[in-house]
Design goal:
Length: 225
């Protein structure tokens, strides 16, 4: 599978990366929807799972694995550069330093939790979708997409929330996790018709519909794409 990357694949990879980086920036604002307090990232982060589903369904787990690691590396770069700018002294006349620092000076624990949760959740999402596709003969994409996203997002929340909000009462933490996962799943259910249409269109235009038979699901095996 050492063929060239298509423009469509590259665009999806870039969009996936942008969604991840944007999510971490948007997470600094807490929003209230119908009386439920949620991190601002919930408006964009589910899109990364939708794109992950599209990439995994069309090009397979190996391509998705590459994109996940690429997005992880770019996000880590943004975090490092942001920290560097926070550490550098601001100009004496600029009064925006506190706001900039608030945006980029995230606690190492939160950053680590976010990156680890992303890696684990995204890989699980892609892996579940891939294995279910082979087992189901490529049928029922909608069901596979939702179930794989539930698995990935649940693992993401199980890793991120306890680490990022260490010390929060268990009952409160469980409520936050349930609200976050439920919101993301509902988000994906609403947009599922669009996701399915995009997948069909891309498969037809790319003439690609990958089945991951006898591949390695080792998330660190980047040499196999």
């Amino acid at each position: 599978m050492k063929d060239k990357f298509s423009i469509t694949f590259l665009l999806m990879a870039v969009l996936f990366t942008v969604c991840l980086i944007s999510s971490n920036l948007f997470a600094t604002k807490v929003i209230s929807l119908w009386g439920i307090n949620l991190p601002g990232a919930v408006i964009i982060f589910p899109v990364s799972y939708i794109i992950n589903d599209c990439i995994s369904e069309v090009w397979g787990y190996r391509r998705a694995r590459l994109v996940i690691w690429m997005a992880f590396a770019m996000n880590l770069l943004v975090v490092v550069l942001g920290q560097l700018l926070v550490w550098l002294p601001a100009a004496s006349f600029w009064d925006g330093a506190p706001h900039f620092d608030y945006m980029f000076n995230m606690a190492p624990r939160v950053v680590g939790a976010s990156l680890l949760a992303f890696l684990a959740g995204s890989h699980l999402n892609s892996m579940v979708l891939s294995k279910m596709k082979v087992a189901d003969g490529g049928r029922r994409f909608g069901i596979r997409a939702i179930l794989s996203s539930v698995a990935g997002e649940l693992l993401d929340s199980l890793i991120f929330m306890p680490i990022a909000f260490w010390g929060t009462p268990v009952k409160v933490l469980a409520g936050m996790m349930l609200a976050q996962v439920s919101f993301k799943v509902c988000y994906e259910l609403i947009i599922l018709p669009v996701t399915s249409a995009v997948v069909r269109k891309v498969k037809a235009s790319e003439q690609v519909d990958t089945f991951d038979n006898n591949i390695s699901y080792n998330p660190f095996k980047l040499s196999d794409i």
